[in-house]
Design brief:
Chain lengths: 309, 289
């Protein structure tokens, strides 16, 4: 270390601005830039999608029609209408069904992995869950298209197998590993002392889980479910391929629907930049961004609540 | 006095029942997916050969191989990594080594969580608005990779920060006591001790990036191109989009072809993940502190 020789002179040399000091300063500035880049990017995303969608909101959008009309007809020649209700209903029905499938199973799996499984079994299960989370969404969509579709047609004797049921199950399988991982973390974060105290009072394993661990981990579990909802809500390719992609207010799980995300993915390529239709798609993007932002924020508040008992 | 009472027996039965229920739930989560993977292997396996991997698609994409898509994915992932790894590591360094516990740090963390939670199609819109139109990169590998880099940045930051924070604080203190600056400490103590954890995170990011479809659809990936990309300003094919195209957009595709593409894509992604997991386990076994 090339220190500035304060010791040699016998007095304390307050000025330590040698080369190392300057390098340190520069690096600090660089990593600080890296640190704030996340903030810059999230603001950038907001600015750019609102920038492109804003023209539609101010000039063309009829808020009442947007949220209450199921008529999404952006390409109609004489009278294009932009009612997003059917798209919102499509996203909601698919995500809802996905959560119905995924929440019980992933919480059950998280409890099993965190509280019951030991040693090798635990390791293997954790790795399997992690691998499940890694399957790309386009592959899930393809599975919905090529495996689930004929399966649903055959089992339920319906004409089309690309529907809410198909997309919901696919989305459930996609969201489950993430929810399992986060829920398991939440269960593991409950101090071992809580369990020991309950066991010392004579509680059985399941009493410990239901009366002590689950209530203590409640916030983390809620966050896990919320992040699962966010994932399902924002999923694009799988829903595009498995939901049937037809504009519908679904009345049964066997109806085909169209999701907000899938609409953007399917139509953006066909629109001219800056056109009304193009701006309307960005408006859907603003809606998606806003909702996932709120979901993530809420989930974070729940997790923070857990950390600060 | 130690004989089990009726209550003990009941408790034991109830516990067994719950255990069985949770075990069944776990199994039902894992088994369908394994079955599905099995079907992919059985149906896609016959399509795969050296020819499939190393020839161009022919006959309007109803025959031939996936070579340009494979090369395109490598381009996209490589450029995205070049952009996101330095930025992600810098951000992680700041959060792990410099950041005080203040409002700014909390906002940064919140931004990272939100960046990870933004739907992929919104990232695509951002990519179109920012990189394709505003910065005038056009639909190109550069625009697509930038979009992918923004999207996977949180993965790098979180993995890197975690591995840096797992370096014991005493190591740093020992180094500071020798008169080292913060950067010297990072360079000679923190980075060498966390580099393998960072690599694990990078491998994980590669697998994420390779599988993404929505963010590249409108920013740089093309349905079909008769040539390979020559620079970052060219468009390119990609495995993920190729699967979408042959599965939904092209009529008259023989059934085994999309299964083959899906199998290649998923093998790439799962292999990367397996490497990352194996690497992590090896490291955990080797850890000295």
């Amino acid at each position: 270390m090339d220190s500035s020789g304060a010791q040699a002179s016998g007095t304390f040399d307050a000025d330590r601005r040698n080369a190392s000091w300057w390098v340190d300063r520069v690096v600090q500035a660089l990593v600080f830039t890296g640190g704030v880049s996340a903030i810059v990017l999230i603001i950038g995303i907001f600015v750019f999608i609102t920038g492109h969608g804003f023209g539609f909101i101010t000039d063309h959008m009829d808020v009442g029609e947007f949220f209450t009309s199921p008529k999404w007809r952006p390409t109609s020649d004489n009278n294009p209408t932009y009612g997003a209700l059917a798209l919102i209903a499509g996203t909601a029905s698919v995500t809802g069904l996905a959560m119905l499938v995924a929440v019980p199973f992933s919480l059950g799996a998280a409890i099993f992995i965190a509280e019951f499984a030991k040693g090798k079994t635990r390791e293997v299960l954790k790795v399997l869950v992690e691998l499940l989370a890694a399957i790309p969404s386009v592959v899930w969509g393809f599975i919905g298209l090529s495996i689930m579709n004929p399966l649903i047609i055959e089992t339920f004797d319906v004409p089309v197998g690309l529907n809410v049921l198909n997309a919901g199950v696919i989305l459930g399988l996609m969201a489950a590993p993430i929810m399992t991982t986060i829920a398991e973390d939440a269960l593991k974060a409950v101090p071992e002392g809580f369990r020991e105290a309950a066991e010392a009072l004579g509680a059985t394993r399941w009493q410990v889980i239901f009366k002590v661990v689950l209530p203590a981990a409640r916030n983390g579990l809620v966050a896990a479910v919320l992040l699962g909802v966010g994932r399902g809500f924002g999923e694009t390719m799988a829903v595009l391929m498995a939901s049937g992609h037809s504009i519908n207010l679904p009345t049964s799980p066997f109806d085909s629907v169209r999701a907000l995300t899938a609409t953007i993915a399917a139509e953006l390529g066909e629109t001219a930049a800056g056109s009304e239709h193009y701006q309307a798609l960005f408006t859907l993007g603003i809606l998606l961004f806003g909702v996932t932002f709120v979901i993530n924020l809420t989930a974070d508040l729940f997790i923070r609540g857990r950390r600060k008992p | 006095m130690f004989e089990s009472t009726a209550l003990n027996d009941k408790n034991r039965r109830v516990e067994k029942l719950w255990r069985l229920l949770f075990c069944a739930m776990t199994v039902m989560l894992v088994v369908p997916v394994l079955l599905i993977l099995g079907v992919l292997v059985v149906k896609g396996g016959p399509a795969i050969s050296m020819d499939f991997l190393f020839t161009d698609p022919t006959d309007g994409m109803t025959a031939g191989g996936v070579f340009p898509a494979l090369i395109g994915t490598v381009w996209l992932v490589a450029v995205a990594l070049l952009l996101s790894v330095p930025l992600g590591v810098a951000a992680a360094l700041y959060l792990s080594e410099y950041a005080p516990d203040n409002l700014l740090t909390r906002i940064i963390n919140l931004a990272i969580i939100n960046l990870a939670g933004v739907p992929s199609i919104v990232h695509a819109l951002f990519g179109v608005g920012a990189f394709v139109i505003f910065f005038q990169f056009g639909t190109s590998i550069l625009a697509a990779s930038l979009t992918l880099a923004v999207m996977t940045l949180p993965v790098v930051i979180v993995a890197t920060r975690e591995s840096m924070q797992s370096v014991p604080h005493a190591f740093r203190e020992a180094c500071w006591n020798m008169g080292a600056t913060r950067w010297q400490t990072i360079r000679h103590v923190v980075l060498p001790n966390s580099i393998s954890g960072i690599l694990t995170g990078v491998i994980l990011e590669v697998s994420r990036t390779a599988g993404e479809t929505a963010p590249i659809m409108f920013t740089g990936a093309a349905l079909f191109l008769p040539y390979l990309p020559q620079s970052v300003w060219d468009q390119t094919m990609a495995m993920s989009l190729h699967l979408f195209v042959v599965a939904t957009q092209v009529p008259g595709v023989p059934e085994h072809l999309p299964f083959g593409v899906a199998l290649v894509l998923i093998s790439m992604v799962l292999a990367m993940n397996a490497v990352s997991i194996g690497f992590r386990m090896y490291l955990r076994g080797k850890k000295k502190w």
